[in-house]
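Exercise 7.
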Amino acid sequence: MEQEIVHIALENLKQTTGIQAFWYDKKPLDGVLEMTINGPQQTFVVGVKRELRTHQMQEVEDYFHLYENFLLIANRIFPKIKEELRQKEIPYLEANGNIFLKKEGLYLFVDTQKPQGVEKNKRNRAFTKTGLKVLFYLLQHKEAINLTQRELAEKADVGLGNIPQVIDGLKETGYLIPLNNKTYVWENRRALLERWITEYVTALRAKLIKERYALKGPWQNIPFDTGKTVWGGEPAADILTNHLRPEKFLIYTRENRMDLIKNYRLMPNKNGEIEVLDMFWKNNHGKTAPPILVYADLMWEGGKRNKETAEKIYNEYIQPNL
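Solution. The predicted structure, written as tokens, is:
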């Protein structure tokens, strides 16, 4: 998929600007791009995305600061994100040939082409609603991929018949490599985490939303039954890091409306401060959702303070287990 995006982008770049570029599939990231612009040859370290989402901006910024000659190639970049990239002077190339490049006295900006469609692969069962639940567990417990399928289904709280489809989907996308019939090893789990967040936001999160409730009194004093109800988003981030004073409130729960009213005196209110989502996993993480989900909440919500706190959570709780 990534190479297809690159080749389409380079062909459209040539048609749009007359610039000929050459792609090499090699490290340190997804590949290296060489192009000649007004005489001198430019060489770029390239990161490739299908669609750049807000929660991925921090990763792109990190690459931009790490590699002096970084270039982002994406199938599509939404206008607000393109504007943010330009403000930060991060070079990009879209599959349709639109390009922004400001480097060493060179300025190239084309934004006239309509979004380019890239033919989608057949639906990958690893990234369906149920598949995302399985991946959520596997991203937290990488060794669980070598459990029996029945054990993994029980741990992930899904039906047994879903497990082989998820495993096949992970093999198809290259995130999982079979050593033999029963043993697998992981490949590029950071990229899998980023894809999980994107798919979670677009395919699963909206289906989890229950309703909103009014918050009365300090949020820290609500006596949740943590086996059934936990904090997510900004409150969870504050509990994990003591770095973020929450302005928006989010909980995940297995309790129904009457339970929330009776047990915690939360009152349904369409303008209430607390957003309530279904808990889609078996909880054993204390007062908060698992750090991976808190990280996803913060990156989805966006904003500088959320991104800074998300990085703290990633470095302390997530990266060591990837």
